[in-house]
Specification:
Blueprint: E1 5-11, H1 15-26, E2 33-38, H2 45-49, E3 55-59, H3 65-79, E4 84-89, E5 92-94, H4 98-108, E6 112-120, H5 129-136, E7 140-142, E8 145-147, E9 155-159, H6 160-166, H7 178-188, E10 192-203, H8 211-226, H9 233-276, H10 278-287
Helix pairs in contact: 8-9, 9-10
Length: about 290
């Protein structure tokens, strides 16, 4: 195949993974171009990245978050003639045939806008528990590729046609929720989202509960619902109100009644702000249609 694949990595204090991450890409059986956008790291990430003349390094003077930094890399890759964009987390690495298998799946079926590999833990054997949830939610299959409504953006292969049609990550999200919003938009524009079970990566992460983080993630989950262009504005607000109640119920098992009640209060205040910002919500939704 002669398709040009650009890997886009956003780094922030990720020195621990850089050599494993970049080294795996340089060993790929399918040749790739690599763009790294560093979000003003305070560790030695930049120094490590500069060891690799094969990569294009873009240094942001500020921490832009996941989506906005990826947008810089996506635009750069498209300007340089990318046929496919592979968004890869800094704490992940690939195997020799990961890229080749993803490209083969997408070339075989142009309906796929995003295809992800399977995600494994750092031991390279145990499936990532959160990812396994997304995989179990498959709604169909085409040519061996599972069709899913959502898969997290730790390792997305995105076609040029999908990126040019759907656009960039929505800048209203700073670090969480961008990928869910993007998947909603991919579906709206009649592209499929898939998981190729023959392809795999390692996602070296440990998910830990953190109340401030869970508040932000819950707020962005509500924002995703409000911005979901597959449903009406009124339906979005109705579903979001249910999430104001439902999300604290979900977190009861982690935090107990008092902290979950606090979460409910934070989400209710956030929801009220979004009700007052309905014109902004409508404008963002319309911009993605």
């Amino acid at each position: 195949m002669n398709k040009r694949v650009f890997v886009i990595i956003v780094t922030y204090n990720g020195a621990h993974w850089i050599d494993k991450n970049i080294g795996s890409l340089l060993s790929s059986s399918y040749p790739v171009d690599i763009i790294v956008v560093d979000n003003n790291s305070t560790d030695n990430s930049v120094q490590l990245l500069k060891k690799y003349p094969q990569i294009t390094l873009i240094q942001s003077p500020d921490n832009l978050g996941f989506g906005k930094a990826n947008n810089i890399g996506i635009q750069k890759a498209l300007e340089q003639g990318a046929d496919y964009l592979f968004l890869l987390n800094q704490d992940a690495w690939i195997f020799n045939d990961t890229i080749a298998l993803l490209i083969a799946a997408m070339e075989a079926n142009a309906k796929f806008g995003i295809v992800s590999p399977l995600h494994y833990n750092a031991d390279e054997v145990t499936p990532d528990a959160a990812f396994a949830t997304y995989y179990r939610r498959q709604i169909g299959e085409e040519q061996g590729v599972a069709i899913v409504p959502f898969v997290n953006a730790a390792a997305w292969m995105v076609s040029k046609r999908c990126a040019e049609t759907v656009g960039l990550f929505e800048p209203a999200f700073s670090h969480y929720g961008e990928d869910r919003n993007y998947c909603d938009r991919v579906s709206y524009h009649d592209f499929l989202i898939g998981i190729e079970p023959a392809s795999k990566i390692v996602h070296d992460r440990v998910i830990k509960r953190n109340f401030p983080k869970d508040v932000v993630q819950s707020q962005y989950k509500i924002l995703c619902t409000l911005l979901n262009i597959n449903i009406s504005v009124s339906a979005g607000y109705a579903l979001a109100l249910k999430e104001v109640v439902g999300l604290p119920k979900y977190f009861l098992k982690y935090y107990g009644a008092a902290t979950s009640a606090k979460l409910f209060g934070e989400l209710l205040k956030y929801y009220i702000r979004q009700v007052r910002a309905v014109q902004t919500i409508k404008a963002i939704r319309n911009s993605h249609k």
